[in-house]
Amino acid sequence: MARGLNRRQQRITEAFDALCEAVAAALGAAEGRRDSTIRAHAEAIVEMWLRTDGLDAVQADAGMRPLLTNPALSGPLERVRADRREAFAGWLEDGPRRLADILQEAAPGAAGLAPEHWLARVGAVDGSGPVPSLWSIGTGRIEDAAPVDFPVAVPLLDESHLQVSSGHEGRARAEALVEGLLLRVMSYFRPGIVQLHVWDVGQFTGALPGLYPLTRTGLLTVHDPAMLPQLLDELSDRIRRVHTRLLVDGHPSLRALAESTGARNEPWIVAVLVGNRAPLKDDEHRQLQRVARGGLACGVQLVLLDVPMTINAPVESVRVDDAGTAVSSMTGPHVTVDLEPPLPPAEVTRASHAIADAYESWRSRIGTFADVLPRPAQWGKVRSVSSLHAPVGFADGLPVEIALADASPHALIGGPSGSGKTNLLLTMISALATRYDPDELEFYLLDFKEGVSFAQFAPGRRDRTWLPHARLVGVNINTDREFGLALLQFLADEMRRRAEAAKAYEVTKLEELRAADPEGRWPRIVAVIDEFQYLFAERDAVTRAATLLLEDVARRGRSQGIHLVLASQDVSGIEAFWGRPAIFEQFVLRIALPRARRVLAELNDASLDLPRWHAVINHESGIKHGNEIVRLPDASGQGASGDEAATSSVGAVQRVLHERYAEGRPQPRLFDGSSSPRFNDLAAGLPRDGVPRALVGQNIDVAGSAAAVGLPDAPGRNLGVLAAVGREAVRVLGAAAASLAGQYPAGGVDVVVAPLVAEAAEPAARLADRIAATGTPVEIVGLDGVRARVEELAKGVTDRLSGPAPGRPVVLVLYGADAADTVLEREGTEAMRKLMRFGPETGVHVLGWWRSVQRLRALLMMSASVDDLGAWVALDVQGSEVQALVPGMLVNWSPRPGRGLFFDRAQHAAPEVVIVPSLPEAE
Ligand SMILES: Nc1ncnc2c1ncn2[C@@H]1O[C@H](COP(=O)(O)OP(=O)(O)OP(=O)(O)O)[C@@H](O)[C@H]1O
């Protein structure tokens, strides 16, 4: 039994053993298959990664990199590499060559060449370019591809910001990359065209020590680690200033502006921010983002090194790995960039010194008058649609512009006598006139002081040329404040005319009017008034009227393209005097010459320590942060010679402009307060409308029109000249009689000339000769015959009054009429009164000079009245005396040489100042 059991047991055991073996065999086989499946799966996954992420990405990823050296994965790796080789092979054939060609063109000179070609040589390219669009950083290669490399470059300046990041080991290479790039930029352009700012979070001394020599001249500013907000403020200010001052014509960027004007005067600012891979504080981050967004259009370029942030503006990135190679956004992940070897530190320092030295000598070179003018090909090329701008001085060797635009429509210039104010005005006029043609810009130039600085812009005896942009030149205005008033009135009228024209096109501004009426001529107007404080010198009607007009023009001129430039030795006191600070507020552009007071804002005393021939230009109503300190060139052209002399002075510029534009354009009107207007010119300007007129002088207006009294056959049409002394009285009376007689046909009027005082004998005789020469009979009557002649004329008037119509015209010219009092007696005086009262309506007019208002007043009573003298001109008599002739009207008049107060009931609401003409016989 037991034996039988054992055998069975043994069989069972054997059977199980066999089973176990079979199971073991089966399991062994399964395990083998699983291993190979896992291997295949792993290979497939890796191949998928390699194909999805790319070999380079895997290579760059520290976690993945071991895969590439795992022999078990050589299969997929080899397959991917083979495919990649094949894919790149086509590109490698001509891709690198094409890149090299592009770079050669886009990165000229120091932007692209190897350092030995430019290091320590100073660049000469100015802001007008050519501006490289790419800057070399190294060579690229494609891993495992054929050993072909190609140049790699990044865009900078106007194009794109640059963000460089590095690992711990790669930081030194990253800094060397930034240093090399900056040195390329600094070596390409003329020193001063690019300015650097460096801020390093970690060190006081900042990164990029090789560039330190540049700090000596301000080309490089190193910012304290704690002062990032200040740097960002500075950059933001700059962006704002570019927008409000330069990009006012609708140009989107400085680059676009430079393309249209052919010049770029604003330097590029490159701000290098060196971080420690930690994010910036929130507010700094936000402000930096704003700078990044607005910067490129305004020439502000950011280079960020290990400052992590997203930038909402064009930006290229370079990531430097620990091995010192890099990947750039320009070339993508498949290209490994071998960065240029760091420049030898000693060479960098030497180059920086060379640049700083060159900059120093450039800066100390005096910006000449010729340097504020555009290049010859650019003369007259700029349009004034929405603004005017032109440089007037230099800061650090670069021209600094003033802008008359929406944001800064008017300018206030201050500087004590001798500080160069006139010189600055002449420079400004020349710089503007050479940029804009006379259809784009017109000048109205007034000089209140005794100088004749603007006289050169009108044709003179020696120089017949004139400035084609000038419509009016007023010099020696001194006491003729009315002329300033007349200019303001003219501007106000022109402003209204423009507003009406705009309204007809359903627009409101000059800029829109020009677009709506492209054929129309709508130049911007610049009215310059030098020593304008004289206009407000007294508390009188002129000041009151001028204040109102100035306020109107200052406020509304902006939209009608009318700009005021007011200059003064001393503006202090004016503001208080006006009691209207709002007027000053419109004068956003302030220019203060050395020691100028109150031109800038109250706490801004920058003008006090200005050196000679410098100015503070401020487009921010004079507040401190708007200060720009410039050096002013000398507009007199002294010391210039050769080619330069052609454009080295205002006079030389005017001759070129005259030759170019004068033909077919009217000359500017010259108002010279120190000279008398010519009788013949004035008489020729009298209207010919059948009404006989007696010329008494020239109105103080922009047109320089003739002042005359109409003498139709109507009551009261007599003229009185009131003057104690005869010198000017005979000129007014002579002009009146000669012009009046000249308007009748020869022999068509009887003229009776009565010189009743000795000093009048000669002028009366000359007047008689002059009139007689035109064929008109003239009778001369002396003191002895005057009574009889007056009575005879009075009798004639009585006869005419009963007749059907006025008779033959008669003009009685009395020199020293009051002298007749002694001889007229009662009858004669009555006859005289009759002549005055009833003569005019019958064609008999009296033109008389009375030496005393009292005597005249005594004549105009009883059977005559003051109304019988319809018009008078008062010369050397006080307003209070004349008052008697116009009861109820306040006459404000202090006599001044060569001027008269003219009142004609028929045309004036109040008396007006006229200029006494020269003697007709003197011409
Ligand atoms: N930027 C300059 N460089 C060299 N010389 C200058 C400069 N500006 C002015 N001058 C000279 O200084 C003198 C005075 O200049 P300017 O007549 O312009 O001064 P001003 O302030 O208008 O004086 P004033 O009101 O007394 O006429 C002139 O001889 C002028 O040539």
For the structure shown, list the relevant keywords.
alpha/beta; ATP-binding; FtsK/SpoIIIE/SftA; Cell division protein FtsK; 22 helices; binds adenosine-5'-triphosphate; 10-stranded mixed sheet; 37% helix; cell division; nucleotide-binding; 4 domains
Quick overview of this protein structure:
This protein is 37% helix and 19% strand.
What can you tell me about this protein's structure?
The protein is α/β, with parallel strands linked by helices and about 900 residues long. It folds into 4 domains: about 25-105, no CATH class; about 110-365, Rossmann fold, CATH 3.40.50.300; about 370-670, Rossmann fold, CATH 3.40.50; about 680-920, P-loop containing nucleotide triphosphate hydrolases (Rossmann fold, 3-Layer(aba) Sandwich), CATH 3.40.50. The protein is built from 22 helices and 31 strands. The strands form 4 sheets. It has a 10-stranded mixed sheet with strand order 2-1-10-9-8-3-7-6-4-5. Helix 5 runs parallel beside helix 7 (about 280-295) and helix 17 packs parallel to helix 18 (about 760-770). It is rod-shaped and about 190 Å long. Adenosine-5'-triphosphate (ATP) binds near residues 419, 420, 422, 613 and 633.
Low-confidence stretches: none
CATH architecture of the largest domain: 3-Layer(aba) Sandwich
- The number of E-state strands comes to 31
The averaged pLDDT comes out at 88
CATH class label of the largest domain: Alpha Beta
CATH homologous superfamily annotation of the largest domain: P-loop containing nucleotide triphosphate hydrolases
GO biological process, one term: cell division
Protein name: Cell division protein FtsK
InterPro entries: FtsK/SpoIIIE/SftA, FtsK_dom, P-loop_NTPase
Pfam family, one: FtsK_SpoIIIE
